[in-house]
Amino acid sequence: MKKDIFIDNNIASKFSNPQDKEYIKLTKWLLDYNSTDIDNKDNYAHLVVSKKLLGEYFRSNQNAQGSASIPVIIAQLQKEGRLTIITNDEIKIFQATYYTKTVIKKFKSNNEDREHIPLILLSDRKYALSYDDNFIHDLKNFKGFEVTVEKRPENLPYAD
Predict the structure, then answer these.
(1) Are 140 and 10 in contact (CB under 8 A)?
(2) Cα torsion for 80, 147, 52, 10, to the nearest 10°?
(3) What are the tens digits of pLDDT across the range 97-151?
(4) pTM given for the model
(5) Residue 57 to residues 32, 78, 93: CA-CA distances in angstroms?
């Protein structure tokens, strides 16, 4: 199983300087990789994204500088094959299967965030970081899936 994680755009801005100690730990975990250990790539961090989320990251962090900014982290993960991209087709199939009228009626998150729900639910570990209470509500209450979502990295066992 991949050690994957979804990081909401509202959290990604925390990767730019200055970071608190918990975000420094998360950044180190994301960037830690031994390229000679290619057979055990799943033991290292993988970031779960979509094209839409990547666009959000880059728009929100276009002026972010430094080696810990989310664009730099994404570039490294992509180079090392540790960026898990959920395709638009996978998202559409998930939504067609699971987004019934009843489910949609219970959503609290906005339409834009609803497109990110499949990223987490299709990931291996179903771990997410987000500050958005409505998005968190929708993830925790999505029937048939068990999601671990937190607002702070120290509350999520991402490194395990």
Answers:
(1) no
(2) -90
(3) 999 999 999 999 999 999 999 999 999 999 999 999 999 999 999 999 999 999 9
(4) 0.92
(5) 21, 14, 24
